[in-house]
Amino acid sequence: MRKLTVFNFVTIDGYFKGLNEDIGWHKHGDEEAEYSAESLKSDNTLLFGRVTYEMMAGFWPTPMAYEKFPVVAEGMNNAEKIVFSKSLKKAAWNNTAVMNGNIIEKMRKMKQQPGSDMTLLGSGSISSLFADQGIVDEYRILMDPIAIGDGTPLFKGIKQNLNMKLINTRVFRSGAVLRFYQPTHNK
After folding, report:
1. What residues pair up with 121 in beta bridges, in sequence order?
2. In which band, very low, low, confident or very high, does the pLDDT at 187 lie, cut at 50, 70 and 90?
3. Whole-number Cα distances in Å, 47 to 11, 77, 135, 153, 185
4. Which among 139, 132, 130 has a CA at the least distance from the CA of 110?
5. pTM score, two decimals?
6. What range defines the domain where residue 164 resides?
7. How many domains is the chain built from?
8. What pLDDT does residue 33 have?
9. Residue 83 sits in a domain of what CATH number?
10. Could you report the per-residue pLDDT of 36-60, keeping only the tens digit for each?
11. Residue 21 · residue 29 · CB < 8 Å
12. With helix as H, strand as E and coil as C, how does the chain read?
């Protein structure tokens, strides 16, 4: 069975993006880049909602990405990717397929098929949808040492409590803390 992990970064006050979709508060330093590069070696299929996909596709294939984060850029560009979208018909970023329709049922089927594990990056509304359906196996939440006062909460719109068990942590020199959680009541 394939494992589905959600990875997101948040502020100390629980927002994964600020007002006007701002994520400029997230500081991705050398140590965090090393963690990203190591994570990409797992060959997980990367999953995105349309908004996150467009942001990622607008950065990772660029010369700036290769200059600042060469190993991560290479991994992101070579990874198999799926974007969930009702409006996109075709994805321009290499190795990307578009998935629409009943994504919950499609994800349940994908989890049962052989293949690499899957990691959903960003994509708050998809994260909340998957959380409500109990199909996420692990959450990796990177908490940045900053409070921004307003924005979009990480689990905005969930319809039930999401009980989790802390299974690991990692502290970065920047003060960011990565927490690994498993839901305690998967459906």
Report:
1. 7
2. very low
3. 22, 13, 14, 20, 23
4. 130
5. 0.91
6. 31-172
7. 1
8. 78
9. 3.40.430.10
10. 878 877 788 999 999 899 999 999 9
11. no
12. CCCEEEEEEECCCCEEECHHHCCCCCCCCHHHHHHHHHHHCCCCEEEEEHHHHHHHHHHCCCHHHHHHCHHHHHHHHHCCEEEECCCCCCCCCCCEEEECCCHHHHHHHHHHCCCCCEEEECCHHHHHHHHHHCCCCEEEEEECCCCCCCCEECCCCCCCCCCEEEEEEEECCCCCEEEEEEECCCC
Widest pairwise Cα distance in the chain? 43
Q: Confirm whether 1 is domain-assigned.
A: no
Let me know if residue 10 belongs to a domain. Answer: no
* Neighbouring residues of 39: CB distance < 8 A, sequence distance ≥ 6: 7, 119
Q: Would you state the structure tokens that stand for residue 145, as one six-digit string?
A: 């040492």
